[in-house]
């Protein structure tokens, strides 16, 4: 099964690495956070082209009549969508805002800064393009139906900040209905981090998993 690619986007220099790993010495204030989000173009993400769009010919290739050729190729062979479109490197960050970080049920609209933030993390650390989608419903069936038909657009689905137990039901049903990867961040992401920490601890201490007791 094809899905979203993971391109390494390591920091470009040591200075950048140092800045990312140095603990914050100063607490982030509400005023500072609001100023950051509102400065310049509001929000944290934008869409930029990956091909030159300078001349009329560039535009003709990118749109009409140039798009006809890849459209027909994808119609004949759907997998070529990964060759001719951004699908393979595009992830939907989707939430209904019912369990936003430590803030609780804020609703779809108020969860948007978090979803934009997760899209930024995808881009910063893996060069994966993320688009945030806030679905304004608390009904499981409505949410599943809203997301399931997005499959042709994206290479993967990242479910975020959806309250339990609905989050488990939604994730399972979408995995059954969609032919692209569906990842529930609060469930699988937490498990991956915990497992990685355990593996690293075993490696550092020179022990084997079968020799330890986990509490």
Which of globular, elongated, flat, extended, rod-shaped describes the shape?
Answer: globular
Total DSSP helices: 9
Query: What's the end-to-end separation, in Å?
Result: 37 Å
- Tell me roughly what share of residues is in helical segments: 40-55%
CATH homology-level superfamily of one domain: Malic enzyme, N-terminal domain
Count of beta strands? 4
Overall CATH class of one domain: Alpha Beta
Oligomer: single chain
Regions with little confidence, pLDDT below 50 for 5+ residues: 6-18
How do the SSEs run, as a string of H and E? HHHHHEHEHEHEH
Based on CA atoms alone, the radius of gyration comes out at 20 Å
- β-strand percent reads 5-15%
- CATH architecture grouping of one domain: 3-Layer(aba) Sandwich
**Main sheet: strand order:** 2-1-3-4
Structural class: alpha/beta
Features:
alpha/beta; four-stranded parallel beta sheet; EC 1.1.1.40; 215 residues; 9 helices; Rossmann fold
Task: Write a structural description.
The chain is 44% helix and 9% strand. By secondary structure, it is of the alpha/beta class. Among the domains are: 54-85, no CATH class; 86-183, Rossmann fold (3-Layer(aba) Sandwich), CATH 3.40.50. It has a four-stranded parallel beta sheet with strand order 2-1-3-4, with helices on both faces. Strand 1 (90-95), helix 6 (112-126) and strand 2 form a beta-alpha-beta unit. The two termini are 37 Å apart.
């Amino acid at each position: 099964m094809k899905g979203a690619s993971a391109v390494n986007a390591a920091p470009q220099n040591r200075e950048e690495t140092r800045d990312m790993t140095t603990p914050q010495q100063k607490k982030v204030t509400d005023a500072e956070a609001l100023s950051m989000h509102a400065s310049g173009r509001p929000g944290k993400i934008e869409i930029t082209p990956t091909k030159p769009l300078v001349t009329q010919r560039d535009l003709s290739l990118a749109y009409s009549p140039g798009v006809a050729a890849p459209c027909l190729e994808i119609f004949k062979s759907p997998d070529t969508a990964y060759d001719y479109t951004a699908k393979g490197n595009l992830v939907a960050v989707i939430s209904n805002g019912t369990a936003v970080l430590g803030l609780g049920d804020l609703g779809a609209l108020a969860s948007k800064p978090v979803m934009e933030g997760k899209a930024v993390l995808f881009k910063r650390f893996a060069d994966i393009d993320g688009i945030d989608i806030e679905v304004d419903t608390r009904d499981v069936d409505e949410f599943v139906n809203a997301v399931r038909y997005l499959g042709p657009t994206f290479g993967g689905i990242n479910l975020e900040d959806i309250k339990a137990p609905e989050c488990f039901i939604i994730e399972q049903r979408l995995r059954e209905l969609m032919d692209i990867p569906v990842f529930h961040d609060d469930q699988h992401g937490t498990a991956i981090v915990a497992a990685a920490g355990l593996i690293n601890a075993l490696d550092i201490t020179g022990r084997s998993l079968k020799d330890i007791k986990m509490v």
